[in-house]
Structures are given as C-alpha cells and as structure tokens.
Amino acid sequence: MSSPAVAILDIGSNSIKVLVATRDAAGQLTTLHQRSLDARISAGISAATPRLSDEGIARGLAAIKELLASVAVFSPVRTLLVATSAVRDAANGAEFRALVQRETGHAIRILTGEEEANGIGRGLTCDPALGALRNFYVFDLGGGSLECLAFRERRVVQAASLQLGCVRLTEKFVPDATAPFPTAAREAIAEHTRAVLAASGFAFALPAAVGVGTGGTVTTIRAIYGARVGRKAEGMPALVTVAQLRELLDFLAPMPLEVRRTVPGLPPARADVFPAALTTLLAVAETARLTALHHSFYNLRYGLAAELLNE
Description:
41% of the residues lie in helices and 22% in strands. It is an alpha/beta fold.
C-alpha cells in the first residue's frame, strides 16, 4: 500500500517547480506529478544589495498560485514551500514571503545554503540509477547559486553553496545578453568560477570519484541533444560529457539571443543565461578533472519529499 502524498514547491532563482511524491509498497519514492514554470524572480541578483523587482514578485506569485492549483487533485497531506538563493539574498525577501502567505495561506521556508546542499544530496540517494555509486561529486547549478557536494561511501562529507548561479554571472559578466556570447565573458566567468571554488576550500580529493549533475542546465543539455534526434531529454543517455558541454557552448555562443531562442530543446526563457551556465559547468568539471557528468532528475525536491514522508 502506498503512503500519502506530499507536495514540494521550490521557489528558485530562475524557475519555480513543484513535485508531488509518495512511496510505493517497496518504500521507493514515486513521482505522481511534477511541473516547472520559468519566473526569473532573481533579476538584479548580482547587485550589491539585491532586491526582487515588482515584476519578478508578480511573476513569482502567479507561478506559485498556478502550481499550487495543479497539485490540489492529489490531496497532499503536506505541502511545503521553500525558497533558495534569490529570496534568501534579497533585501525585500521577507516582503515577498509575507505576500505569498497572505495570498495563498502557505508560509515559505527559506533554506540556508547548507540545507539546500544537503537536501539535494538526500534527493540523489533516492535515485535508483545512482545506487552503485560510492564516491562522487554533485553539482547543482541554479540561477542564483551552485551547490557542490562530495559523497564518500554515499555519505556527504563536504557541502558548499557558492554564488555562481547563471543569472547572477550573466548579469555580472555579460555586457549585452541579447548579443552573441563574447569570448571575454566566457574567459571571465571561467576564471571567476575557478577562483570562487578555490576560495571556498571545496576539495576534489575523493578516490575514484565521478561527477553527478542536477538542475535545469544539465536537463536542458540532454533536451537539446535529444531534439537533434527526435527524442525527449529522458530518452537520451544520462552521461553528459565535457566534450558535449564544450561543443554546445561553441555552437550557441556566436548566436544572438533571438536566434538562440529558436534552438530546439532550449527553453526560450533560459536562452539568455544558458551560455554562462555552460561555461560555469565546464570550469567546474575541468577543475575537478572530470570527463563527464551523470545527470539525475532527483534533486532538492526529492530530498525534501523524502524528509516529509519519513516524518
């Protein structure tokens, strides 16, 4: 007999996503419903004092209401709303949280960087496809931050939340996001990523480790390559090579934004920040001396769902 359902709504910097999950008779976490809406509430996140804009707040509130309506049919026994980098860092984040609670009746739990990283780690351990991995690194790239984890014998031994999100770095290093992605920005983002990793103290010292990538960037990579052969992202190999990252960046960088938005598999709302995301992932993989990333759809929402279902 399956357990009751729970719903997790993740208010991210670039998109807002919902997962409804339960456990089957064998105790395996099972997805009943998931959906994602691009809201980009994090515009302006690279400012010295970040603030959520009125437009970003309106987009975020509308997306939250739409996603909450979509889960009602599943009658979840618990619905948890969480927010990460954009709301966590914003000077007016408390005002946004108060507005959402007033409009929906749901409070938003702000996750610290450590809570976000550990939730991602817990979600990944629910992925049956990763069951054989013992020592591995995890990289979850969002709009506001990059979460890095190191697993030794399937236990988290390092976790870091770094301000390397693709919206943040696009605002910081790309002078005109509507133009082709300039070589100077590519070099600056790669150098900045390496410097932030070095300053964080995150060590790449695991024996025989592999890399695991989660989040919208790696999902989009699979979707673009899938579109070339008429398949969905889920139908493509879960192993994304560093060579593919480099090829895709070389392919997209010369395009102005209006052309980039027409690339099959690349969501138009993500096209402006996608070159910065690819550049960041490349710099991380090269720093870790990895040749590929194993992609997993299991992420923060799965970790939080597992936590709720265990309570």
